[in-house]
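Please check what follows.
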Amino acid sequence: MRDFIIGFLFCAEAFFVLYMIGYASFLFLSVTVGSSELYAARRRNAFKNELENDYYLPVSVIVPAHNEGVTIEATIRSLLALDYRLYEIIVVDDGSTDDTAEIVRERFNMFRVNRPIQRRVPCKHERAVYETREWKVPVTLVCKENGGKADALNMGINASNYPYFLCIDADSVLQYDSLDKIVRPVLEDANTIAVGGAVRPCNGATIENGRVTRYRMPKNLLASMQVLEYDRSFLASRILFDKFNGNIIISGAFGLFRKDLVVAAGGYDTDTMGEDMELVVKLHVFCRETSRPYRIRYAPDAVCWTQVPEKLRDLCKQRRRWHIGLFQSMMKHRRILANVKYGAVSFISYFYFLLYELFSPYIEIFGLLTTLLAFAVDLINVPFMLLFFGIYVAYTAILSLTAFLARVHTVDLKLYPSDMFKAVGLCVIEVSCLRFIMAWVRMTALIGYRKKRGNWGRIERKKIEFK
């Protein structure tokens, strides 16, 4: 029996070490490629032809909202400040019980209209439609029955007038040039059907007319760690996967889509919590099944600023929903795995998200428990394991810091010395502590998840500093 336990622990530890080395190697490759791409994009922007600004795509900006009275005004004002000519704003109030709709109507002088909405994708019925033409672009408010975020997005698609639509969360603000930058991949290649942008935490930032005039790391330590996490995440896999048309996630906070293809594919799935990822995977499947040439791109210089949770309870709820959405999307489209029809999407993207996202919390917690068990029965070389984990934490923290500094430098944000010291200290805590807390949350996420399908998932919001 003892030999069996020794053999099991040896195999488990060897697998866990190889798993961590694999993740670290992927992170190194993706951060290196991502940082290089950011600096290359900065050089291209410095010498770009100004005539590019004369070319536009008509875009419908859809803002799904549920009880977002604290942030909705700042979000709409950021959209009105965009440096873009041809777009419309559609706010979809999904049965809010607060003053979200009232704020939109009063602050933007809207009036009720008798406007029919054609059902191109399924959604619940509207209760009232309001419009205003007093601003630089048309603004529409659709008040509808509560059906969840995916249902609200489908309503926005149905109410939209333009061939491309952009989704943005109601607790986010766009940088003044974000719309211009996110449509560029479509202008460059007509086969581009979707583009994702970069999402950055705005906690601690002051934004005036769509421009960040003052950037500080958030005072809240949990929010600061998420700044590092977001920069590493968006710099890592997304830029690398963009090289081979392998992105299967576009953040629901900021994504551009070609409407006719989304409608043909059936719109957003109202039965999943991860409607953003599910739609992107669905578009991969739809285009490959119909032999349609397509590209799904990532625009790293198109920036959306969003609020991140400042309480651990809210962060746990958010990450639980994300993991459930990941599980639902990957299980629904599991035929992609090891299927030559899907090429690199199958053998690289899907496999990566399966091993290093969906299964990662189970592997990491299992690895930690087996390490503790091996220590308890004196079957582990303690100095070696401590050295290995120390090197891993330092290595991952350095890559996180590299991603953070690359993002700050390439968008010309001023970083205060105190923020630099904070970033250096917190990147170690984020990798060594917060990561394992989130691993436990994600590992237990699937317990009883079916009871709250369609729930928006509320977290505490604060007023966005937009002037």
